[in-house]
Specification:
The complex is a heterodimer of chains A (about 270) and B (about 280). With about 270 residues, chain A is α/β, with parallel strands linked by helices. Chain A is about 40% helix and about 15% strand. Chain A has an eight-stranded mixed sheet with strand order 3-4-2-5-1-6-7-8, with helices on both faces. Chain B has about 280 residues and is α/β, with parallel strands linked by helices. Chain B is about 20% helix and about 30% strand. In chain B, the strands form three sheets. Chain B has a seven-stranded mixed sheet with strand order 1-17-16-13-11-9-7. The longest helix of chain B has 15 residues, at about 65-80. The chains are: A alpha/beta (about 270), B alpha/beta (about 280). The interface between A and B is medium-sized, with 14 and 17 residues.
Chain lengths: ~270, ~280
């Protein structure tokens, strides 16, 4: 039985696609056969993040139209043979694929893969409904911002109504220093609202931009960044391993930061 | 009965906004729709469960699409899961709602996941009756008006309390023509509308409207009251700009000056004392 997991968030730009690409790669590196499915029809990005754009010949839409076989549309990763991408069509809109067709596509993938990760589009309209239709589990990505958390909450409600019982929370782009200074929602604040199990906290990291531009998922880096490690840990937790959460507190409360805090505390709030 | 008692000193006032700040909160609140009854309801009656669907849009201002009905049904089933006995028979009161065979199957399957069995369909529409019969349910077709299973929409009797064990999440709106009890958090972006009291055993962060049909003696209670907005009858209040340093169970009620909030421990005393004063 393969695990079918949708990565979703409600709000756009919180890191769904980056998370999907990295988790897919991390799981594949751990020996699992992984298919990542881009369900963001019309605004596909997953191929870019994996650096596979120039290898796409067919997409999911052509498979459904009977113009090619499923295995012809699947793009094997150039670095990791366990990972395959089912690309979305770029020239269509979100209505190009119906929930029922999505279910069929994923059912066909089930035979050959252990994990099927579906990258959902932002929003809660048809494209989202299509993306979640085949899923048995969901990863909800949010950033510690009120708007993102509010949208995530809405999405969790919709997932519940669609009988997706297993839901895990990923808090992305956390800035520990800002949390410590009480300028950003903490993971605990987010969890208090969303009330679903936490599977990972990914710190904000400039390396994400570099890795996105290069099409090299962060988990592949030889000297992994903190964000890369956090994503790798999420992959391990998905497999059921118990991995302690990374310590993201600001490492050195040195003399200068203390001085700065003191300064801010005494005069900053006026 | 409003509480203009001496004990009102212990009452935490919600700061009334200055008129130029927000006029809509000064004027008495107008309800935007007629009745909060128009949602999917599950009601037990003589050992069976009645599943009442909201009528088709002509009688209500808020049209209920099949999708709305479906989500309300899933919500109510999930929130009441613990209370159904396995294999309880369910009678579907579809009223004038058109349902096709597929939708009836969906309803039956949703009920089945909560171990409930759809037995009988009541409808006033011929097509629904035919679809239900084809799908293998026993059917009772009746004329649109004056059926005894129809809730007394002109009567004043309140429905039995609605007990929900769930997190009410952003985007959800729960309406009930009686008292509502939520065991769980009510998140920002959600709305509770009840004709009776609202009791939240958890944090109330969304909008709550008690006494929605005009009863200003209704109450809103929560273990942690940090609402977006409170409404009782036709009064409106919003939470103080500055959140209290410490939360404890509180009760909101209407006085001659508008909605007031007090600690639950003080509230019971206030209630007991006020008749004497």
């Amino acid at each position: 039985m393969s695990r079918i997991i949708v990565v979703t968030s409600g709000k756009g730009g919180v890191g769904k696609t980056t998370t999907t690409a990295n988790l897919g790669m991390a799981l594949a590196r751990r020996g699992k056969r992984v298919a990542v499915v881009d369900a963001d029809f019309g605004l596909r990005n997953l191929d870019l993040l994996l650096g596979l754009e120039n290898r796409i010949v067919y997409t999911a839409v052509e498979v459904l139209a009977g113009e090619c076989r499923l295995d012809q549309a699947l793009v094997r990763d150039k670095r990791q043979p366990n990972l395959a991408l089912l690309p979305a069509a770029q020239n269509r809109t979100k209505d190009a694929v119906t929930p029922l067709q999505m279910k069929k596509l994923v059912a066909a993938l089930e035979k050959a893969f252990d994990f099927i990760l579906i990258d959902s589009p932002a929003g809660i309209e048809m494209g989202f409904q299509t993306a979640i239709a085949p899923a048995k589990e969901a990863l909800i990505v949010t950033t510690p911002e009120i708007a993102a958390v509010r949208d995530a909450d809405r999405v969790i409600g919709l997932l519940e109504a669609n009988d997706i019982k297993k839901k895990y929370l990923i808090v992305n782009r956390l800035k520990p220093a800002m949390v410590q200074d009480d300028l950003m929602m903490s993971v605990k604040d987010v969890q208090e609202i969303l009330a679903i199990p936490l599977i990972g906290v990914v710190p904000d990291d400039e390396k994400v931009i570099v890795s996105t531009n290069k099409g090299e998922p962060m988990v592949l880096a030889e000297k992994p960044s903190l964000a890369g490690m956090a994503l790798d840990n999420i992959a391990r937790r998905l497999e059921g391993e118990k991995v302690p959460f990374l310590d993201l507190t600001v490492p050195h409360d040195d003399f200068f930061t203390r001085l700065r805090k003191l300064f801010r505390g005494s005069s900053g709030k006026s | 009965m409003t509480s203009e008692s001496p004990a009102s000193a212990s009452v935490t006032a919600i700061p009334q906004p200055a008129p130029e700040e927000d006029l809509s909160l000064q004027i008495r609140f107008q309800r935007e729709d007629e009745s909060p009854t128009l949602q999917v309801r599950l009601k037990s009656e003589g050992g069976r469960l009645l599943l009442l669907l909201p009528p088709e849009s002509e009688t209500s201002n808020v049209p209920h699409t099949w999708n709305d009905v479906w989500q309300q049904l899933k919500q109510r089933l999930n929130a009441g899961d613990r209370f159904w006995q396995p294999d309880t028979a369910v009678h579907l009161i579809a009223r004038d709602r058109l349902l096709d065979g597929r939708q009836l199957q969906d309803i039956a399957e949703a009920l089945a996941t909560s171990q409930l069995v759809l037995k009988r369909v009541y409808t006033s529409r011929r097509q629904t009756a035919v679809a239900a019969a084809t799908a293998g349910f026993s059917v009772e077709q009746h004329s649109p008006i004056g059926h005894l299973s129809q809730p007394s929409e002109n009567g004043q009797a309140m429905a039995e309390p609605l007990y929900l064990e769930t997190t009410v999440r952003s985007g959800m709106e729960i309406r009930h023509p009686g008292t509502m009890i939520v065991l769980g958090d009510v998140n920002p972006g959600s709305t509770l509308i009840a004709d009776g009291d609202i009791v939240v055993w958890g944090s109330l962060r969304g909008v709550a409207h008690a006494g929605a049909s005009g009863n200003t003696r209704c109450l809103i209670m929560a273990l942690r009251l940090e609402p977006t907005q409170l409404r009782i009858g036709d009064f409106v209040a919003r939470a103080p700009e500055k959140p209290p340093s410490q939360y404890e169970p509180e009760v909101a009620y209407v006085t001659s000056e508008g909605i007031r909030i007090t600690k639950s421990t003080d509230f019971s005393k206030l209630r007991l004392l006020s008749p004497q004063s």
